[in-house]
Design a protein that fits this description.
- By secondary structure, the chain is α+β, with helices and mostly antiparallel strands.
- 33% of the residues lie in helices and 21% in strands.
- Pathway: Amino-acid biosynthesis; L-asparagine biosynthesis; L-asparagine from L-aspartate (ammonia route): step 1/1.
- It is found in: Cytoplasm.
Length: 335
Amino acid sequence: MEQLIIPMGYHADLNLHDTQVAIKTVKDFFQQTLAQKLNLLRVSAPVFVDPSSGLNDNLNGVERPVSFDIKGQDQPAEIVHSLAKWKRYALKKYGFSHGEGLYTDMVAIRRDEDLDNIHSVYVDQWDWEKIISKEERNMETLISTVRTIYSVLRKTEKYMAVQYDYIEEILPREIAFVSTQELVDMYPELTPKEREYKIVKEKGAVFLMQVGKTLTNGERHDGRAPDYDDWELNGDILVYYPVLDIALELSSMGIRVDEDTLDKQLTEAGCDDRRELPFQKAVLNKELPYTIGGGIGQSRICMFFLRKAHIGEVHVSLWPEEIQEKAAQGGIPLL
């Protein structure tokens, strides 16, 4: 189902040419600052992987990956949904040490995405991953890392507000921390998305913790694959976005599963068949480093800091004719 929000009286403050300049300005500043703060090195990353490797992110388990055959090879290839698992494998293969990390420019195709102002078939994000010790697999490490990333978001907003007069600083000084269970307790009558909106509208910026676990109401706040994030030590960075009056997710991240949590979560999710896949087997056998990592939406970051009404204003994708027509009528110039 496609939905489109047309903000009342919206107009793009930058033309298409100047938007391209601004996109590069945002991306350059943000990624350089992030890499410095988290001690990350940029590495090359795959656009597609072997399906039998277990490296692809299966998201909620229902999305169909784009696959294709390769001349002269027997097995097909799959376009990645994200690099959540590949990064951990790469940290070991590339010889990274404790406290060091990597980041990549990840590009994906999500053919089953419901299209709206912030969802596109084309997905681009900074996928990052960093080696920690087993003792650092705790809430303190998670919260500290979230605060560091949030400080980079605030620095980027300050920088862009200096570069462009129409951009005002709207991010609060501190990010709030709330668990999915606490949200259920606070707003039991609301849907998960309504709860997110309610808390983010109040706080301005929230790290919503423990996404994927089953809550006391018998439901999950949102789907999360069982074989990369530890459901007790993960979450999403959400900010209030006044242009669309929504809670906007900028990042999904977490401390990654160790051998014990992977064992538990595979069983809980009914995914025991994955135990024999190479990546999952390597985690269970303690052959990969313990890590923390996540994905930060590149286009969403650009959309937020440039105050755009549609993600199609900051990247090129394919949109249904109905969305294209409504966007044009509402003063939203899609690329």
